[in-house]
Amino acid sequence: MSSRREFLNQCIAGLTLTILPSGAIAEQGVRYYQLAAEPTPHFFDKNPLATDLWLYNKANPGPLIQATKGEILDVEFFNNLDQPTTIHWHGIRNINSMDGVPDLTQSSVEPGGKFHYRFPLNDAGTFWYHSHNKAWEQVARGLYGPLVVYDYDTNENDIGSDIVILADDWLLNSDEQIDANSFGNLGHWSHGGRLGNALSINGKFKPAIRVSSNGPVRLRFLNAANARILNFELSGGIMMKVICVDGSPCESFDTNRITLGPAQRVDVLIEDASQLVELLEVSSSKALNAAIFEPISSKLTSVKNSLSTEPYYSWPDTKNAKKIDVHMQGGAMGNLSKATFEGEERGLRDLALKEAKLWAFNGNIGGYGLSLAEIEIGEVVVIKAWNDTAWPHAMHLHGHHFWVASSEFGEKKRALLRDTYLMQPGEKAELVFIANNPGAWLFHCHMLEHHAAGMGGVIYIS
Ligand code: C2O
Ligand code: CU
Fold this sequence. Notes:
Blueprint: H1 2-19, E1 24-25, E2 30-42, E3 51-56, E4 65-68, E5 72-79, E6 87-90, E7 114-120, E8 125-131, H2 135-138, E9 144-150, E10 162-170, H3 186-190, E11 198-201, E12 208-212, E13 217-223, E14 230-234, E15 240-245, E16 248-255, E17 258-260, E18 265-270, E19 278-281, E20 288-296, E21 322-330, E22 338-341, E23 344-347, H4 348-355, E24 359-361, E25 364-365, E26 371-375, E27 380-387, E28 393-397, E29 402-406, E30 414-418, E31 420-423, E32 428-434, E33 439-445, H5 448-452, E34 456-461
Parallel strand pairs: 2-5, 4-9, 10-13, 12-20, 21-27, 26-34
Antiparallel strand pairs: 1-2, 2-3, 5-7, 6-8, 8-9, 10-11, 13-18, 14-17, 14-19, 15-16, 15-18, 19-20, 21-24, 22-23, 24-25, 27-32, 28-31, 28-33, 29-30, 33-34
């Protein structure tokens, strides 16, 4: 009897697995995907040399997950790596148990194991998913992909008018392989993190991006690099209208340059896409040609009609807010000489050499075990972050978006609702949010080497 039932269940499971294409809707309102993490050779260009990466579904970036706001995302995940892993859904104001932080919100998925992620998509926007175990290695080897939630029905998708531009910065050796010898390099960990020597856009070096030349185009920029801050411009100085940051709509403004710290997203609108020729990365004195635009003619699109302008929520009153002081310290050329690690105060040099720990919050080497605060559900919270180091940091809060008076886009401060804020050396910033999502939520630097080396802690909300 029970074996027959098992057999039937297996058949049903088997059917579900084989019949549904990715992104299919089987049940009303549920979007199904399967992701498998595995070692895969990848071609960045026409070069016959393949680079050995670790990828989701053998693709870099991993498959574009597309859904409509209000749907449930259902992902069956398989770990075909030879080390444990998890998936974090960056920017999703998620259920805590689905947040994908190993040892904090779930156990790691062991080699050969699987995990069922299932959660509602309550916000539209540009998000991404990435490994959250040893991310400094697993993300560097390619374990990430884009996730776009639309606020309208996408069944009839506009070709070439709504485009993800996902950038990554790879550190490759002369055989075009991932430079594995430098994983864990203390120079990287104590300075600006692992910086690469090859820039990919959507998994290719200098690809052609097809854009619809008749009508406005939406570009969704996303920085998946471990540590590199990227600056993009369009050739000819074409202006971009910023409409969303980190998923959430913002008060729109025009700019000719987009700055993206690791994990950040910026969505822009280009009014006249027929002018698009080249995408340039302009961080160094000589602009790098990152991609070329290839005009195609397609039907007139609706990308503009569907734009929402309302942020996820408005800046809350902070009169009775709970304050969390986060004094960010450490790193090379910093002023931290000793810090507490696992209950013991030790010199920074000793911590660096023996534990690969280099960064601290309030004198404590951080990690999944460091509690920054316990907050009552519903409270308004102000994280008073002080970057008292010689390096920029991309500070990310899980499970929430926060308001910040941002100085990321020039002199003028802008009120932005973000999940990741790029802080300059010496900067003090107030990150304001409503703690309305219960659980254990990480707050950490998204320069992945900094996080691994101590720049992170947990905010408990109940
Ligand atoms: Cu995108 Cu804790 O990370
Ligand atoms: Cu950092």
